Amino acid sequence: MQITWLGHSSFRIAIGNQILLVDPWLSGNPMFPEDRRAEAIKGATHVLVSHGHGDHSGNAVGICKELGIPAVGIYDLMHWWEGAEGIKTIGFNKGGTVALGDVSVTLVNAVHSSSILSPDGPVYAGAEAGFMIEHAGRTIYFSGDTDVMADMAWMNELHAPEIGILCAGGHFTMDMKRAAFAAKKFFNFKTVIPCHYRTFPLLEQSAAAMTAALPGVDVREPEVMVAISL
């Protein structure tokens, strides 16, 4: 598989016979080079959205329309987009699993909030979530935006992910120290990829604290548009 960071919490994941765009926020993302947009979305089969905040869902609808592919995520948001935006969607809820080609995606819990801004203020966008993405016995845990939570214990017991893509920027989510605690306390990751950091000065700028706290784990500080092969 290949995991390519698009900056912030946006990823392109080539796994099995699928190319998944996860939380695509490209336009206005300070880390993403807009002249590489076509390259980033080329061949995508689905758009996965963990929650409604603009720095995660910002380009989801536009990409789905452009490529004619479905958005995948919490039922409430998908149902709304299907009616309001006319895109194809796959809506499900926490604990549910959907088959995307030969890849299985399970929606799991996260602890955050979820809304979309409107002229009248925030609009409810369904519950926040994370994803377990599995193919051929290998599983990626994409945390979405979350804090440490006890649910991570059963997530590991049930899904046994070997790769963790963990929000770790602090202020809005876990920081590096808390994300490392979660990884060490609840999971047995071989590889951890931090995200939701470096985007703004408010967020953590380095994964050094995570790397130091996780000896024996392959902590990969991703670079934008550089594929990580695992």
Précis, in short:
The chain has helices spanning 37-41, 54-57, 60-67, 75-85, 151-159, 176-186, 208-213, and strands at 2-5, 11-15, 18-22, 46-49, 71-74, 89-92, 97-100, 103-109, 115-118, 121-124, 129-135, 138-142, 163-167, 191-195, 218-219, 227-229.
Structure description:
The protein has seven helices and 16 strands. By secondary structure, it is an alpha/beta fold. It has one domain: Ribonuclease Z/Hydroxyacylglutathione hydrolase-like (Metallo-beta-lactamase, Chain A, 4-Layer Sandwich), CATH 3.60.15.10. The strands form three sheets. The protein has a seven-stranded mixed beta sheet with strand order 6-5-4-3-2-1-16, covered by helices on one side. A seven-stranded mixed beta sheet has the order 7-8-11-12-13-14-15, with helices on one face. A two-stranded antiparallel sheet has the order 9-10. The chain is globular and about 45 Å long. The model has no long low-confidence stretch (mean pLDDT 97).
